[in-house]
UniProtKB/TrEMBL annotation:
Signal peptide: none annotated. This is Cytochrome c550. It comes from the Bacteria. Residues 43-118 form the Cytochrome c domain. It comes from Paenibacillus macquariensis. Keywords: Electron transport, Heme, Iron, Metal-binding, Transport. Pfam families: Cytochrome_CBB3.
Length: 118
């Protein structure tokens, strides 16, 4: 009886392993999700300021001087547009993810606008 139970458990474990092999994402998928690619946009400063005013000043201040979030007045000297885009898209620590809340083009525009602040 114990022999059949062990065989059944082994068979079940093999089936689960095979199912997981075909359903879990691969390294390439995980890497792609971990580093979103920034779409090409032409910088529109007025639009970027509108998005920042509507979404960012609560934590970063009305002059981007910082508060709950860090000072962003010279963030362009520390981060590239792609790094800013990734951070805003994914979020980090207490910074929420804006992916799904803002369009990718809006996030890219804000990233370019912030990267110009040096």
């Amino acid at each position: 009886m114990q022999k059949y139970i062990m065989s059944g458990l082994f068979f079940t474990a093999c089936i689960v392993a095979i199912v997981l092999m075909f359903t879990l994402p691969g390294k390439d998928q995980v890497a792609e999700e971990a580093k979103p690619s920034m779409p090409e946009v032409v910088l529109d400063a007025a639009s970027a300021e509108t998005v920042v005013t509507a979404n960012c000043i609560t934590c970063h201040g009305d002059q981007l001087q910082g508060g709950v979030g860090p000072n962003l007045q010279k963030v362009g000297s520390e981060m590239t547009p792609e790094e800013i885009y990734s951070l805003v898209s994914k979020g980090k620590a207490i910074m929420p993810s804006f992916k799904g809340k803002l369009k990718e083009e809006e996030i890219a525009n804000v990233a370019q606008w912030l990267a110009a602040k040096k």
